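#structure-requests
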Amino acid sequence: MKKIGIAQGVPDGLAEALASRYQGEVEQVSSTTQNIGYEFVISYDDLPVPSGVAIRRYVTHVDAVSPEWSVVAARHLLPEAARRGTPLALCAPLPVESKKNCSQGAASVAVLHGKWASEISLRLKSHGIDNEEVAEAGASLLVVDASSEGSGVYRIRFPMAAEIPVIGLVSNSCATDTIRHQSNGLLGSSAEEIVLLARELLKNKPELKRLGFEARATVAEASWGRVARALLQQGRVGYPELEQLGSAAKYHRWVERLGHAAEWKDGQLLENIEGLAMREPNGSRQIGLKMREGLRKKMLKRLIGKADSN
């Protein structure tokens, strides 16, 4: 019977997803394990693996030194994967456990370590905004990633999973891979602009909550099932579990969280509550659950056209 190995230290969620999808035996291995009949071994970042066996590796950051970059956690890692010798690497977003909103900590803003951290922190304090420079986001209202270039996927997605909005620099590929400006976070081109965005957002509590909600919904779209499917490529069974929130679920979550007291700034809710319809920033509408029947009739009439007069 065919079998694969999983390196010790691989996240439990990934190991479980691999075991449920691979049609064969799945064994945990270490660097000292002898290669006895493994089809390939799956590893995570730079976890050690046995020698003399095919490796498929899931890479989550640009500093990984291992040569096998089979699947990467973000699009900005694809060029580096090609440079390392995997021109056709796959991309599967890094899953982060979704959590409820963290309680407020000692500071309103957490400024993640980076090139502009000190300057951003001083500018925020000059405007009366309490903040602290940290290596990893904790309990805060807002997170600012002060790195001007690739800072790491996890430290951006971790606060997003806790419904904490993140402001990043447009020069940081990790930030631009995940954050869509004014949709699920904010992007700025300089320290001065970052501070301005933070000031305005902290004044607008409904928008702060909306961005946090959309941030968590974005991260929830990733799953270890999708990562496992990309790593296995062949010999897999089933489909990845898409853990995303549809429009109806988003609407109910939003009503439950805020009620009707505040309007969306960039995605204003329609008054048609029964139809569960939403208006997009460009003015277009998404069709809600109770509006689909009318849409079907309209499309059929358009396809059939007018009756033949002859």
